[in-house]
């Protein structure tokens, strides 16, 4: 990963190392078995997207400009070779973990995977009947030339391939000639008296409409399952009467999904997006995962899809690991999962009343998933139903399938409120879902604005305008995470509820600007990318340099998902050389090289991988004792700072500042789920030293919130009695 200049790590290789850290959790015996399996499937899902986008982009870069180099000095070809080498290592480690540790461990706990080679006679009869009744009617074998077959294989679809031998002896005649001409038979295949038949390759797509985990009848209290793809491979002979199956193979193709949308097609922008979705299904292949059971079929597919050897990943187990995540919900195995952590309602918020009065009294911090996301939904529902609310404006980047947010906005519009939603249709891999619910909103009367040309709207902001006795009042919610009720239970994010006048004014300006009906105006509190967020961040770093002294060094503490912007990194290097202490908590990509003398010796980088996905962006600048804290929707990456609409917002309330500072510092004390980034690009897993207290930051944050809730519930609730004076 390191470069000759020792200045930047490769972005792509750094991202791969993030997944290596996730894989560490899958291999940890301290993690419950089903949670280990979940981490294993996350790695595979992450690699699917990585190859569809990043690797595909590198392949295109190599073809268009082979001499191009990234910030780390690597050509596209060099990166592709390094990626292949490292991912092959990790995939091998994945399958060693799955086949040698997780599946045997689950079997010993009464949850057993039965591969096809181990089917008992009873299981064989059961699966034979299942195949004929439930699966067979859905299957359509395809036989074509290799290149034609490659075009017909869907992206990330699981397939079974069969090498067939023709057992028919057809005489010369019109039928045989027709079969040969159509490609169903090769020349002379039908005449077995002439010469041996040539092999025929047929491919069958595994139906996505059938659950991949096939539960078998229990035996002696053991819950057993087979996999649908194994069943199709085992009983696939039934698809080919007159042929024998010589070899078979399971495989999955990953295709290029890095498509740009023609944003000049204003009149039919949705149609342009839909064309991109179709294109992804049949674009250039960039990877094949397959079982190593048939070199003949593997070579045939590789040739047809024009894949190189380094793009083929032969594995010794189930192909599509993400679908195994369904096992995490198997009944009766709670002891193999993490103990449940409840999402707790904040004790300092009213439970059964609107939040308006509390928001006018103070700024409110919400820290999910330790605290429940319900207060956000409370605000949205109250805004939809409150007769005093005149208008709702918000951004939506990603949300859940049956989103309560969408339902509330529909209800608000039908009630006659002015509802405006800025929908980011270009949210990669959520385009189809976003198009669907955006259409629903429009039918309900919501004003839907489909993003901004050549930019993605990634900011997370909600503005509610309410008519009160004193006049118009504006309520604002700003977040580091999406308005998504599902991910709010899994991702660590922070958000602020506020009625601060300056922030409310800025929020109003923000919505006017992104609607395209206002010039770019200066804001007092909110900082907007791509307008001035990068320059503001660099000025904050430079200010820290100016206020740093040997007796009182400057301090920057930042938490984010990724750090990859060279200008920001260079500013941090300047700060380090000036003696500023810099602590970075980076979940994923980090291109900054820490610990290099005279460059970054004052910079520490840690990464925490635990049961919740770290997603919050928090920035703390000591500012000579006058601490400034910010939350943001943006990582420090070129795409966020230069090509997306993002918001950086200040924490103004001192009590909220103190809480966030405590949280931020805890991340650097973690010695259970934390890794240190080393100058050579490797990550060193921390562990408690002899006599050292065990500190696991996510556990501590949850336990602290749980304790606050318990103390609140134990307090006697005061009863207020109205007493009247005696007559």
Explain what this protein looks like in three dimensions.
This protein has 19 helices and 26 strands. The protein folds into four domains: 1-108 and 308-314 and 325-334, Methane Monooxygenase Hydroxylase, Chain G, domain 1; 115-305, 2-Layer Sandwich (polyphosphate kinase like), CATH 3.30.1840; 356-524, Endonuclease Chain A (Endonuclease, Chain A, 2-Layer Sandwich); 528-714, Endonuclease, Chain A, CATH 3.30.870. By secondary structure, it is of the alpha/beta class. The chain starts with 10 loop residues before the first helix and ends in a 13-residue tail after the last helix. Helices cover 36% and strands 21% of the residues. It is globular, with a radius of gyration of 29 Å. The strands form four sheets. Strands 13, 17, 18, 19, 20, 22, 23, 24, 25 and 26 form a ten-stranded mixed beta sheet that branches. Helix 13 links the parallel strand 11 (418-423) and strand 12.
Strand and helix layout:
Blueprint: H1 11-27, H2 33-64, H3 76-108, E1 111-113, H4 121-135, H5 146-152, E2 158-166, H6 174-182, E3 200-205, E4 213-219, E5 222-227, H7 228-235, E6 243-255, H8 269-281, E7 285-291, H9 295-304, E8 312-315, H10 356-361, E9 364-368, H11 374-385, E10 389-396, H12 404-414, E11 418-423, H13 431-444, E12 447-449, E13 456-457, E14 461-468, E15 471-479, E16 491-498, H14 501-514, E17 527-529, H15 533-546, E18 555-560, H16 566-577, E19 581-586, E20 603-608, E21 613-614, E22 617-621, E23 628-632, H17 638-642, E24 644-651, H18 654-667, E25 674-677, E26 683-685, H19 697-714
Parallel strand pairs: 1-5, 7-8, 10-11, 11-12, 13-24, 16-21, 18-19, 19-20
Antiparallel strand pairs: 2-3, 2-6, 4-5, 6-7, 9-16, 10-14, 14-15, 15-16, 17-24, 18-22, 20-25, 22-23, 23-24, 25-26
Helix pairs in contact: 1-2, 1-3, 2-3, 5-9, 11-12, 12-13, 15-16
């Amino acid at each position: 990963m390191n470069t000759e200049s020792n200045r930047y790590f490769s972005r792509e290789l750094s991202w791969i190392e993030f997944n290596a850290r996730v894989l560490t959790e899958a291999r940890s015996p301290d993690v419950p078995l089903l949670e280990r399996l979940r981490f294993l499937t996350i790695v595979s899902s992450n690699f699917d997207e990585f190859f569809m986008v990043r690797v595909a982009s590198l392949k295109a870069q190599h073809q268009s400009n082979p001499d191009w180099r990234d910030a780390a000095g690597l050509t596209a070809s060099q990166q592709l070779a390094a990626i292949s080498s490292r991912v092959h290592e990790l995939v091998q480690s994945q399958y060693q973990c799955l086949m040698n540790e997780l599946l045997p461990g689950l079997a010993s706990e009464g949850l057993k995977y039965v591969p096809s080679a181990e089917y008992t006679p009873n299981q064989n009869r059961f699966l034979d009947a299942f195949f004929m009744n439930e699966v067979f009617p859905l299957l359509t074998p395809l036989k074509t030339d290799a290149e034609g077959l490659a075009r017909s294989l869907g992206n990330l679809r699981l397939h079974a391939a069969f090498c067939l031998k023709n057992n028919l002896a057809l005489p010369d005649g019109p039928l045989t000639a027709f079969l040969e001409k159509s490609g169903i038979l090769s020349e002379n295949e039908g005449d077995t008296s002439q010469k041996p038949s040539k092999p025929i390759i047929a491919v069958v797509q595994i139906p996505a409409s059938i659950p991949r985990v096939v539960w078998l009848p229990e035996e002696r209290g053991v819950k057993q399952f087979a996999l649908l793809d194994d069943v199709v491979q085992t009983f696939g002979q039934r698809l080919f009467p007159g042929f024998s199956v010589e070899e078979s193979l399971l495989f999955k193709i990953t295709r290029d999904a890095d498509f740009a949308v023609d944003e000049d097609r204003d009149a039919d922008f949705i149609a342009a997006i839909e064309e991109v979705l179709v294109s992804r299904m049949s674009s250039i292949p960039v990877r094949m995962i397959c079982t190593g059971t048939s070199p003949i079929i593997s070579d045939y597919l590789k040739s047809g899809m024009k894949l190189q050897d380094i793009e083929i990943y032969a594995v010794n187990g189930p192909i599509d690991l993400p679908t195994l995540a369904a096992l995490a919900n198997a009944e009766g195995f709670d002891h193999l999962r993490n103990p449940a952590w409840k999402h707790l309602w904040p004790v300092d918020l009213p439970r059964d009343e609107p939040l308006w009065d509390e928001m006018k009294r103070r700024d409110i911090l919400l820290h999910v998933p330790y605290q429940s996301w319900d207060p956000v939904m409370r605000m949205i529902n109250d805004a939809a139903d409150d007769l005093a609310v005149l208008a709702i404006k918000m951004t939506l980047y990603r949300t859940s399938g049956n989103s309560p947010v969408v339902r509330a906005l529909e209800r608000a519009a039908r009630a006659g409120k002015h509802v405006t939603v800025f929908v980011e249709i270009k949210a990669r891999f959520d385009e189809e879902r976003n198009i669907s619910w955006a259409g629903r909103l429009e039918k309900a009367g919501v004003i839907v604005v489909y993003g901004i040309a050549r930019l993605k709207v990634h900011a997370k902001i909600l503005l509610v305008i309410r008519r009160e006795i004193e006049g118009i009042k504006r309520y604002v919610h700003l977040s580091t995470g999406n308005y998504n009720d599902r991910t709010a239970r899994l991702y660590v994010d922070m958000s602020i509820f506020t009625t601060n006048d300056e922030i409310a004014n800025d929020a109003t300006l923000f919505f006017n600007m992104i609607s395209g009906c206002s010039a770019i105006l200066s804001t007092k509190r909110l900082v907007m990318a791509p307008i001035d967020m990068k320059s503001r961040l660099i000025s904050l770093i430079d200010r820290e340099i100016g206020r740093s002294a040997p007796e009182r060094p400057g301090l920057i503490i930042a938490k984010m998902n990724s750090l990859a912007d060279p200008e920001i990194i260079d500013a941090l290097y300047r700060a380090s050389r000036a003696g500023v202490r810099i602590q970075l908590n980076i979940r994923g990509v980090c291109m900054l090289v820490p610990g290099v003398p005279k460059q970054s010796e004052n910079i520490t980088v840690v990464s925490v991988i635990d049961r919740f996905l770290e997603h919050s962006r928090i920035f703390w600048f000591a500012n000579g004792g006058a601490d400034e804290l910010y939350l943001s929707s943006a990582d420090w990456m070129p795409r966020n700072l230069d090509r997306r609409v993002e918001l950086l917002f200040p924490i103004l309330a001192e009590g909220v500042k103190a809480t966030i500072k405590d949280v931020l510092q805890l991340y650097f004390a973690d010695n259970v789920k934390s890794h240190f980034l080393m100058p050579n690009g490797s990550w060193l897993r921390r562990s408690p030293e002899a006599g050292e207290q065990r500190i696991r930051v996510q556990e501590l944050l949850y336990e602290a919130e749980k304790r606050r809730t318990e103390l609140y519930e134990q307090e006697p609730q005061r009863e207020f009695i109205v007493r009247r004076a005696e007559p």
